[in-house]
């Protein structure tokens, strides 16, 4: 009778040196059409214009929070309408990346595509975070 012995210690040793992990990160560039904000500030004055811009950004933030809740609960039917509203409000402020990603969120929700919805939500969240900074940077420069 022949005995086959396997050296498990030799099999569990790493075959090659471990590799480092590569993290992929989108460039934090945002496309902002400054004209709508400029027009608001000129037409309404600085104080009233800032109030209008703040309310619009708060509206987007509120709807984004509702979207995040709906996505976490996997209730895709509650995603498309607020995403489209975010696109409308974002367009009024010239937030091009927010508008584009919000439309993509709505499309992903309407298609019941959970993977695409997660990716586009993350992109919209990043775009909104960056856009807020860009809006106030522009306002401070002007």
Write the layout of secondary structure elements.
Elements: H1 8-12, H2 34-72, H3 80-93, H4 96-110, H5 114-141
Helix pairs in contact: 2-3, 2-5, 3-4, 4-5
Question: Concise description?
Answer:
The protein has 142 residues and is mostly helical.
- Please identify the structural class as seen in this structure: mainly alpha
| Most strands sheet | none
Under CATH, the topology can be stated as Four Helix Bundle (Hemerythrin (Met), subunit A)
Give the rounded overall mean pLDDT: 85
Percentage of residues in helical conformation: over 70%
In total, the number of domains comes to 1
Order of helices and strands: HHHHH
Total of helices: 5
The percent range for strand residues is: under 5%
Low-pLDDT stretches are: none
What is the overall shape? globular
CATH class: Mainly Alpha
- The rounded distance between the terminal residues' Cα atoms is 90 Å
Give me the CATH architecture, please.
Up-down Bundle
Instruction: Please provide the count of β strands.
Output: 0
Gyration radius (Cα, Å) is 24 Å
